[in-house]
Amino acid sequence: MAIPNIRIPCRQLFIDGEWREPLKKNRLPIINPANEEIIGYIPAATEEDVDIAVKAARSALRREDWGSTTGAQRAKYLRAIAAKVLEKKPELATLETIDNGKPWFEAASDIDDVVACFEYYADLAEALDSKKKTEVKLHLDSFKTHVLREPLGVVGLITPWNYPLLMTTWKVAPALAAGCAAILKPSELASITSLELGEICREVGLPPGALSILTGLGHEAGSPLVSHPDVDKIAFTGSGPTGVKIMTAAAQLVKPVTLELGGKSPIVVFDDIHDLDIAVEWTLFGCFWTNGQICSATSRLIIQETIAPQFLARLLEWTKNIKISDPLEEDCKLGPVISRGQYEKVLKLISTAKDEGATILYGGDRPEHLKKGYYIQPTIITDVDTTMEIWKEEVFGPVLCVKTFKTEEEAIELANDTKYGLGAAILSKDLERCERFTKAFQSGIVWINCSQPCFWQPPWGGKKRSGFGRELGEWSLENYLNIKQVTQYVTPDEPWAFYKSPSKL
Ligand SMILES: NC(=O)C1=CN([C@@H]2O[C@H](COP(=O)(O)OP(=O)(O)OC[C@H]3O[C@@H](n4cnc5c(N)ncnc54)[C@H](O)[C@@H]3O)[C@@H](O)[C@H]2O)C=CC1
Ligand code: BAL
Ligand code: NA
């Protein structure tokens, strides 16, 4: 597919089905991380805009055209959105690349996942119609009970920049499928494609207020959404510290949250792997894909001592072969990280590792041939010990740290030696061993003989400080539903006879 040249659309906030200027008229620059240039501006919402969007969402829930829809009717909107996204795939992939820095072909594959995800939740919305009322058997005949699965209400969706439109979709598609009215606050570092989703919703005639999109800063636009008394739930993906702030603010209103936070996931490699090159490639992909900015990146390689020398030698050869370039170049495999702040943060973590006594086996700096842009070489760090920051803290950049092990017990101890618990991978021919590790890993996701493949049907989420709640699959739909018990007294002409009846009137 040809990579199109493109103009950055100039958008406003998407509220109540139309484009509206933010009340304070503020805008934020859009920066292309490949050349550090300002390529446009996004509107910056504040508390006042949040309030208008919440009122529009409430009104959508009260109106017939959204609040009384069946799942099958909502499925039509979701399929229409999917079709439009597919039609605009080349433009959307290009916008994603120049906003986020990920290689164009990765962005294009994200857009395919966006389409699939909207279609998948269209199917689940349809299926919800037959499941929205279910009987519950009781032990008494004088009562009967059923359970309703209703839209939860107005939901706030706060998303990160690493998979901008895809992370938006992971939340928007199930929220709309469930019949909620959603307010999306994308990351200020990569908002373009989420705003384009607003245009798509307008084109397909999604009822006003069903989805509003408020771009802006976390503390100006995200925080008021979390604290708004008329928002029923917050679904968040992003950093741990922001997750803590969101949970703390939501707790004041006893507002439910789902949190998908960071990780420091292990990839455990045994000496009985099927093939050295295949294992090396999964190790690279597990950490360097998406320019290393993946919450589930398997960024701690735990390698059996017996094969460590040849594995690392081969890992180095493969790493040197990774093409680092402008992400719009056709066979680019590693682009820049998202921002100046992220670039500095990653380089600082590398230099601290060096100061703490680790060895930078490869990379660790800006590639020589790229003078501008937030580029960092794929970096492999050895001689790491478990007290080092590089072992403990999420980097969110193309940095892999390595430790060796002798026994299974040692490997599992190292794998679980983290405050996080998102993903974990094991590469070994011995499937019984893989089974033992699957049980022992303290994580929400396990990969066997691979790392990172992510599909929309299974659940996604973590434990420990990687957060809680599950996205994707049918689990995500549950996040946006209220389970209502309805109990009926089926013999209303018979007295309950709990109190002593006074004499008859
Ligand atoms: N788990 C993941 O998928 C991600 C993890 N990260 C990690 O987080 C670090 C910082 O990246 P940031 O972009 O600053 O992440 P962040 O967690 O601050 O931002 C994520 C989203 O939360 C919003 N936000 C920020 N403060 C908020 C608040 N007080 N109330 C409500 N919403 C708020 C942001 O505007 C953005 O939409 C990265 O270096 C990386 O380590 C970043 C992005 C994704
Ligand atoms: N495919 C991984 C999604 C994430 O990093 O959040
Ligand atoms: Na950007």
UniProtKB/TrEMBL annotation:
Keywords attached to this entry: NAD, Oxidoreductase
Domain of life: Eukaryota
Swiss-Prot/TrEMBL GO biological process terms: cellular detoxification of aldehyde
Domain annotation Aldehyde dehydrogenase: ranges: 19-486
NAD among keywords: yes
Pathway named in the protein's UniProt entry: Amine and polyamine biosynthesis; betaine biosynthesis via choline pathway; betaine from betaine aldehyde: step 1/1
InterPro entries in the record: Ald_DH/histidinol_DH (IPR016161), Ald_DH_C (IPR016163), Ald_DH_CS_CYS (IPR016160), Ald_DH_CS_GLU (IPR029510), Ald_DH_N (IPR016162), Aldehyde_DH_dom (IPR015590)
Keyword Oxidoreductase among UniProt keywords: yes
Active site: 260
An example molecular function term from Gene Ontology annotations: aminobutyraldehyde dehydrogenase (NAD+) activity
Pfam families the UniProt entry points to: Aldedh
Subunit-level organization: Forms homodimers.
Family, as annotated: Belongs to the aldehyde dehydrogenase family.
Protein name: Aldehyde dehydrogenase domain-containing protein
